[in-house]
Design brief:
The structure is a homodimer of 263-residue chains. Chain A is an alpha+beta fold and 263 residues long. In chain A, a hairpin with a 2-residue loop joins strand 3 and strand 4. In chain A, 22% of the residues lie in helices and 24% in strands. Chain A contains 6 helices and 11 strands. At the A-B interface, helix 5 and strand 8 of A face helix 5 and strand 8 of B.
Chain lengths: 263, 263
């Protein structure tokens, strides 16, 4: 995966690192890959790595750090995961205990960082192609749902797949399959389209996470595997320490969205 | 497009040419491309060529002959379009007047042959991937429907797109979009999926051509542009002479289905 050293993503990270920004990152450094963060102790990391390997659609790995190393050099020369995310979430035994803007004081020699691909990347490709993304147009978070599709368990990690939903016309749904198939590291093709009840969603108007978006006229719901899946599995496994990001407050990398395309 | 000179397709054509076979060609010379035939006088051919160019999903051209030349060398060294189709249909002013097994006596120096891609090629790819093709399993012709999707008119040719329908689960429909996208010269990706009424199909249980296939359980109807589209446009235009093939009695070429894949 190729990085673009135009300095825009680096400037965003610098601003965040210096304490100048602690909000959501949507729309910042357009064209650059943003990712979901999960940090775990090494004795939990190998189970989690196997869980991601076994469930690549909800858990597409963009990078895994060396044990104890806070730097993620494949995502940008200066990426320090202790300071470069706007706001973190610290969990102990599965419970949220703090939401700091910096985790240098929590860093340990046994921590491993995972960066998981995010739908921001393929949404940019959809919009560039003229496929409308309704929740963005409405200024809402994407609606997400727990399904009855089981993930493949790995060690202490298991649970249902969580999906995000975007309403599309049939022609746009077909085009969206083509576009997102090209992006396997940011969830790839949809996992379902059409009737929500077939994947265990009882009421599509009440998402489990995010905000509702109406399905209107000729639209059908189209469902993609979602990066909330590994977060949900993680909290259920209740590791003694886990660190993630505040929702929407992502790591902005030097990687280029269009370079994630497999074709 | 590459040909496979294993002699199997050539043997089929030889048998047809010699009068030893005049039936349907489904399943003959597996792996080889079969195509829909349309023959027109030269003064109608350029309008028809423009119609195909403007509507590539229903009218994907595999080959166009030289004016007056009955040979189609890009489809096989010995392909003679006057003798190598099991059974023809001869139309005068849009009316069916004969169904011969040979058209040598009808050949003229101004005739042009068009070979149009057929869904047999992508159905083979679906089956090879494990995506079920229900009408084949049921031993029926594929159901086809006139839609309210207008073709782009060209000269004397116009009319609605005709589509074929295959019932699939959502996961298989997504996979089928991926597979058939790779085959643009045999109709490519679906044009619609889900609610039939959105493309003007009032009763999906009563196809306009072919045979009904039930949509059951978790299946949804998936619609592909169909090679009957240009045949319907042709008959409405009522050229003084047109020659096609008896339904299901196709030209078997030396081309290899898998080589039609764009990727």
């Amino acid at each position: 995966m190729a990085a673009r050293q135009d300095g825009e993503a680096q400037a965003v990270r610098q601003r965040i690192r210096s304490g100048g920004y602690d909000g959501q990152t949507a729309g910042m450094a357009p064209g650059h890959v943003q990712g979901n963060l999960i940090i775990l102790p090494a004795d939990w990391a190998s189970d989690f790595l196997r869980f991601c390997q076994a469930n690549p659609k909800p858990c597409p790995l963009l990078a895994v750090s060396e044990v104890g190393d806070p730097m993620l050099p494949t995502l940008g020369a200066d990426v320090d995961i202790r300071t470069d995310v706007p706001r973190y979430r610290v969990y102990r035994d599965g419970e949220l205990v703090a939401s700091p803007t910096d985790i240098r004081d929590l860093w340990r020699k046994d921590l491993v960082s995972f960066l998981i691909g995010c739908s921001f990347s393929f949404e940019e490709a959809l919009l560039a192609d003229g496929v409308p993304v309704k929740h963005i147009a409405l200024g809402r978070n994407v609606p997400m749902y727990r399904t009855n599709i089981p993930c493949i368990p790995a060690g202490r990690f298991s649970g249902p797949m969580v999906v995000s939903m975007r309403p599309l016309t049939a022609a746009d749904a077909i085009r969206a399959v083509q576009i997102t198939t090209r992006f396997p590291t940011v969830h790839g093709a949809p996992v379902h389209l059409g009737r929500p009840e077939l994947i265990g969603i009882k009421d599509v108007t009440h998402p489990d996470y995010g905000e509702a978006v109406p399905i209107e006229g000729e639209e059908m719901p189209v469902f993609w595997a979602c990066g909330v899946t590994p977060q949900a599995a993680l909290l259920e496994a209740r590791p003694p320490l886990a660190i993630g990001h505040e929702p929407g407050c992502m790591l902005v990398t030097d990687l280029v969205n269009s370079r994630l395309a497999s074709l």
